[in-house]
Amino acid sequence: MSSFLPYKSWNDAGFGQFLEVLGHVAENAGGRVVKVKPAHTSQILCYRDEFVFMSLDDREWFDLIECLLVDRDINAAINIKRVGLGLFPTIKRRKGNLVVTKSTTNSTSKEALTVLHSVQGWRSDQVESLIDRERSHV
After folding, report:
1. 2 alpha-carbon distance from chain centroid
2. Are residues 68 and 123 in the same domain?
């Protein structure tokens, strides 16, 4: 834990109370809150189950195949929903590398791409400049 935070756990920082209130709100709306471990959720593309290894400083990734700028946090949020629904892929370590071994992406990829495209809201000329930028890095 960082030295500037005096809290020893998330519950000390008020997150326990937040989760309790969130549970009541979800219950009143006919839903439920599922606590999940977010491991690898920001490293796997939510619509293709491929690993994208980036530094923690990188907040966006441009996908040349989909012509899509993927925000790391939105991608992770979609994947956390998939974990809660039991749709996140199985990940194993083979020869020291992380590998997706079982995937149910076909059931969620269209929904994920729709969300990512709607969040983006950019023009086609921006796509062209991003494609040029990514090709120059390859």
Report:
1. 23
2. yes
Kindly report, residue by residue over 67-95, the tens digit of the pLDDT: 888 888 988 888 888 888 887 777 777 77
Residue type, 125: D
Residues 6+ apart with CB under 8 A from 47: 66, 105, 108, 109, 112, 113, 116
**How many domains does the chain fold into?**
2
Q: Exposed, middle or buried, 28 (CB in 10 Å: 0-12/13-18/19+)?
A: exposed
Give the SS3 label for residue 9.
coil
Query: CB of 33 within 8 A of CB of 26?
Result: yes
Cβ-contact 65, 74 below 8 angstroms? no
Domain membership of residue 14 (yes or no) is yes
Q: Specify if 80 maps to a domain.
A: yes
Domain that holds residue 25: 1-33
Task: Assess whether 48 and 11 both reside in one domain.
Answer: no
pTM of the complete model:
0.65
- Considering the domain architecture, whether residues 100 and 48 belong to the same structural domain is answered as yes
